[in-house]
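Retro notes
What went well: the complex prediction finally ran end to end.
Inputs used:
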Amino acid sequence: MIPPGEILRISFRSLRANKMRSALTMLGIIIGVAAVIAMFAVGAGANRQIAETISGMGSNLLMILPGATTSGGARMRLSSDSALTLEDARAILEECPAVEDVAPVRRGTAQIVYGNANWSTTVWGTTPSITSVREWVIESGRNMNDSDIRSASKVCILGQTVAKELFGGMNPVGEIVRVNKVPMQVIGLMKSKGGSSTGSDQDDIMFVPVTTAQKRLFGSRGPGSLNNIIAKAKSSGLLSEAEIQIGNLLELRHRIRPGQERDFTIRNLQEFMDAARESTRIMALLLASIASVSLLVGGIGIMNIMLVSVTERTREIGIRMALGARTRDILAQFLSEAVIMSLLGGIFGMAMGALGASLLSRYAGWQTIISPFSVVLAVAFSAAIGIFFGFFPAWKASQLNPIDALRHE
Amino acid sequence: MAKLIELSRISKTYKLGDIAVEALRGIDLTVEQGEFLAIMGASGSGKSTLMNILGCLDVPTSGVYRLNGENVGSLSPDELAKIRNQQIGFVFQGFNLLHRMTAVENVEIPMLYSGVPVEIRHQKAKEYLQLVGLAGREHHQPHQLSGGQQQRVALARALVNGAPLILADEPTGNLDSKTSAEIMDLMGNMNKKSGVTVVLVTHEPEIAGYARRIITVKDGLILSDERNTRRGEQRA
């Protein structure tokens, strides 16, 4: 057997002799591998983004919304008055054992003024529990407390964006701002959460005690009404248990008879996220399989060109056989040409795929992750393609009859 | 003298569709080491088939072929490849050099398949190129060499593995008469000096005249087998 180094040298030489052809054949593999790498990167990136969104939102959450769910899935308001109250929130916390914490939310938009600066933002009237439920962190100052809720204190906590717009670089804690003309003291500043999965700025927000929001800011909708209640289950395993407990409790409290439509909706955010994750996974799988098809086409291109090469070089094969090349020498030579093309294509393709992924994340804003697994997979796969599609032409070459091969023009 | 080639009742039948063509019909031939033999015959006489069988490129339908005492008929394709590599040096009409390879690389090919280390291969290839008078042209590619020079490279390639048998199939068919004479002289010298056996296939009487023994093949049989007495006057 000829040493592998010699075989490689011979193969490289004959590939170089047909530079254009070799390059074009490799291009098929390059595109295939690049597509696989890029698509895996996009898929992994989307998965991570969803995971981050979930952890940013808080985990094991149930969202309770006023209004019923119709069979079509659209939410309908039963009346202009909200069906959810602070008392409902309190009752959920006290009477549902599977629930760990509850944050009621009364939400609205308000104009905030400090000195000459003013900024319009979303105001969340809520309770101190919001920090644990939605995983907000107080960066400086303090959280609101129970006495703020009881007395509907005129205090607020700012998100980073609001603080920056109104105060520039200055520390806002202790300053007085006017929220819809109501003066309020800034007691705290939230740590930044960054953009959400949908691209909106999560830091463009302000928190006030829920009672303050109801009585002083957005009081027109009737006393005690809420936009929603966020409930956190004790564990992910207790999520559906908590959903049932809350449902039963609210049916009782809202005097809903059996068979009557509920005037509230409970949404399981975990399920929502799982569905999102699943659809991303399917999407990534789809893209990867399309990419794999192009890899397959690249492999067929290699087989095609190797068959042409064997026909063209029949005389060379005959000469080599006459001079003492064995079946396996010829087989090894042509097989190594195919593997070199596909492997080189795989390596170039990997670089192109990585480049493509980084361009996607830079210009399209998609998060992409190139995992070592996908790199190993792509390179191993391209080598396998070389062997698989190179074997038949190489075998054909090795089975040539030396006399016929020598006579070939 | 030891017997290098022993053919007994060699026949070869080809099937062309439904018709069986008898190319060889029982050939008996013994060639001793160091002989310079020419096989003559018209096209279709079976001389090419005989050549292919002698070169272990083809196997006979029946009969026994012993090369250097070994019965070649029972060998596998890979074992035949080894015989071709070690025992036989080919010289073809069309030179059959690998283009895009230099002279020295072409001469190295038989050693590549016998597993000679690269340095020795290189050294030996250069020596043999010198021997055939191509010193200084080691790194020329075939298209940079004349026909005669290409045939010299082929001769170096045939000799380099130390094969006891050189099979030359119309070696001067593509050369002018002056170059033909040079190549034939070179082969004659190799035969005389190193004792390598040369079997030459040709249809030109002048070329056959270089051999010491001339065999004529017709219709798959040996028609005549005679010592070349004209050798002296032909050379003059």
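What we learned: The interface with chain B takes residues 1-2, 6, 13-14, 17, 315-316, 318-329, 402-403, 406 of chain A (CB under 8 Å).
What to try next: split runs per interface for comparison.
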